[in-house]
Inverse folding.
């Protein structure tokens, strides 16, 4: 069910939410974010914002439910690989890499353990919220592992005796350090990206997307 208004999915709350809202405001999109609304209408442009969990954004784009979305590449790639495995639609177009949300997905091990390379992970149990990216990476290195799927508290899994290692997002490294872990291998580098659904767009939407992209370019350049 498409509408005349451009639908953009962004994270409701969390690490990408503020910067997404800020970016849209700087692009001249007038929005008042208040309350617990799922859909917010821009006041001065035919744009509706959908405020959702970040986990839902890749699927909303790949199923063609929304036109644009802002999402961390880590989440996007995890969902893409999962959908490929399930034979579900997994296509999207990347319009632009953004200048926030930077982090890396890394394998971390006990800080006192030695690490010589991915082969050291052979046969190990690795706790992660990103089993598909991890498997894709280790398959290519010829390494097999047992996953331990956790959607939170991944960093405590080794201490709790649930896993030998973890694969989690890192930005400063403080969380790893606080849990007696060290980064062994970076497997994916991520930033927030603006993505678009596949399929046709009418002339008005196409023009609006181009205008937004030009403005985003300007906003990002002004900060550099
Ligand atoms: O509620 P919702 O599902 O929408 O949000 P969420 O809790 O799933 O995600 P959120 O808001 O935590 O993160 C959204 C996105 O921000 C991620 O998918 C990444 O693309 C990006 N991002 C950037 C990060 C980090 N940096 C980050 N440091 N996401 C998570 N972390 C966590 C990490 O998992 C670890 O627990 O922060 C901790 C590590 O930080 P350091 O600085 O101690 O290394
Ligand atoms: Zn999430």
């Amino acid at each position: 069910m498409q509408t005349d208004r451009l639908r953009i999915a962004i994270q409701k709350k969390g690490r990408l939410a503020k910067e997404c809202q800020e970016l849209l405001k700087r692009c001249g999109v007038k929005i008042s974010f208040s309350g617990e609304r799922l859909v917010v209408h821009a006041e001065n442009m035919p744009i509706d914002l959908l405020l959702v969990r970040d986990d839902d954004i890749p699927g909303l784009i790949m199923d063609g439910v929304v036109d644009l979305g802002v999402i961390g590449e880590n989440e996007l790639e995890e969902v893409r690989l999962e959908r490929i495995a399930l034979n579900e639609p997994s296509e999207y177009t990347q319009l632009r890499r953004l200048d926030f949300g930077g982090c890396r997905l890394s394998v971390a091990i006990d800080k006192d353990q030695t690490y010589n390379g991915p082969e050291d992970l052979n046969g190990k149990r690795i706790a992660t919220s990103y089993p598909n990216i991890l498997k894709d990476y280790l398959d290519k290195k010829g390494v097999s592992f047992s996953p331990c799927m956790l959607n939170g508290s991944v960093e405590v899994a080794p201490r709790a005796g649930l896993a030998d290692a973890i694969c989690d997002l890192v930005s400063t490294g403080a969380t790893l350090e606080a849990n007696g872990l060290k980064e062994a291998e970076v497997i994916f580098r991520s930033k927030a990206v603006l993505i678009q659904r596949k399929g046709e767009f009418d002339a008005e939407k196409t023009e609006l997307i181009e205008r937004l992209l030009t403005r985003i370019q300007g906003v990002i350049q002004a900060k550099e």
Summary: The pocket of zinc ion (ligand 2) is lined by residues 53-55 (CB under 6 Å). The mean pLDDT is 97. The radius of gyration is 19 Å.
